[in-house]
Amino acid sequence: MKVFKFGGGVLKTGKDVYRIPEILDFYKNDKLIIVVSAFNKVTNKFERLLNDWFYKNEFNKDLFVSLKEYHILFATEIIPGELRNITDKINEIFSEIKCIFSKKLSDNYHYEYDRIVSYGEILSSMIIFEFLNQNRTDCKFEDVRNLIITNSDFREAKVNWEETEKNITEKCKNTNFRICVTQGFIASDKNGNTTTLGREGSDFTASVLAYSLDVEEVIFWKEVEGVYNADPTKADDFVLLPKLSYRESLEQAFYGAKILHPKAVKPLQNKKIPIRVRSFYEFNSEGTVIKDISELSRDFYPQNPIFITEENQILISVSTLDFSFISEYNLGKIFGLLSKHRIKVNLMQASAISFSVCVTNDIFKIPELIKELKRNFKVLYNDNLQLITIRHYTDDAVDKMISGKEVILRQISRRTARYLIK
């Protein structure tokens, strides 16, 4: 058995979806679990629909209509035979969404986020299943909310592994169907509320399913050939990395590399289940394999420097109002607020009287964080920054990335150099 994950980056148009049966036929001797993300950029649009309600106090009718029309057009392009049926189903879902807004949302943004944004996966998985189910009898659908059970930490829900493994084993392991289609990113709590596993959490969904079923391999189908040492959209001299250790892929994901969701790797490492990143467009190519590699092997570390860049960064510097030392008590308050606002720290640095954190500049979260910090601290910040991380750096690699640029902060360890620049 294998788990496949198809992300929104490869599900841009109906034409792309026609590649899926070709891939499935290539693996015709395997039982498969297919995890589907929301279609290209749809998650962002549902987020905008929600944010317009919360922050502008309006229901964005034009965006709502465009989302409905997009999914109907997508479906009718690939499902001509059952056209009326799929259109009715999509209309029912959007009527459900409109009803939620008409009854007015609660004040709990995180709860409403999971309730609304999850429709991206609900729609895409339904359409992909209907497409696959047209001409084959070996395909079934499972709503992942009946499989993965979490707590009620909306937007960052924690998996109840015992109950989840039981559900997945019962509904996905012993079945006569060769292919099972389900959603990524979403789950449910014990009260039946829809939860989500964190932004880009579809990778983690695939990992949870694979771990629970002890599968042979997990394949993430991407718009690129595999994992590169630099973002191919930003660099000209990138090289493909044919193999990576679990540890190296975790390090790169932690520092912001767009390989896999950081949470996706660890469960697979625990059971030594190989991960393969392959091209959706050239599925005969080997891609990159992430697997258990001994620290004594020459393959444990990549032979090339790894370049990772994160844009839209803000450096927030916090000091006490009386210029006393930043104590453990102060740090506890700061990290408590970071946790409250669910802000991931990308880099941090302490001095005697100040503490600085570099985070992604979220237009909704950061102003609220700064507002609360100012109640007890002096706060300064510097925005419009870029964070550059170089794994396995060399002098030439560092010079290539920061020469002629204004460095605001630098941190260098044995294998990693990080620079925050203007």
Provide a brief overview of the structure:
This protein has helices spanning 14-17, 19-26, 42-56, 61-78, 83-102, 109-117, 119-133, 161-173, 202-213, 246-254, 262-270, 328-340, 365-373, 395-402; strands spanning 2-6, 32-36, 139-141, 149-150, 179-183, 186-189, 194-196, 217-222, 243-245, 275-279, 288-291, 306-320, 347-350, 354-360, 377-391, 407-412, 416-421.
Major sheet: arrangement of strands: 3-5-2-1-8-10-11-9
Helix percent reads: 25-40%
Main pleated-sheet profile: 8 strands, mixed
CATH architecture of the largest domain: 3-Layer(aba) Sandwich
- Mean pLDDT, rounded to whole units? 93
**Uncertain runs with pLDDT below 50, 5 residues or more?**
none
Could you name the CATH homologous superfamily of the largest domain? Acetylglutamate kinase-like
Q: How many alpha or pi helices?
A: 14
Strand content: 15-25%
Number of extended strands: 17
Rg calculated over all Cα atoms = 23 Å
Indicate the overall shape. Answer: globular
**Which topology of the largest domain does CATH recognise?**
Carbamate kinase
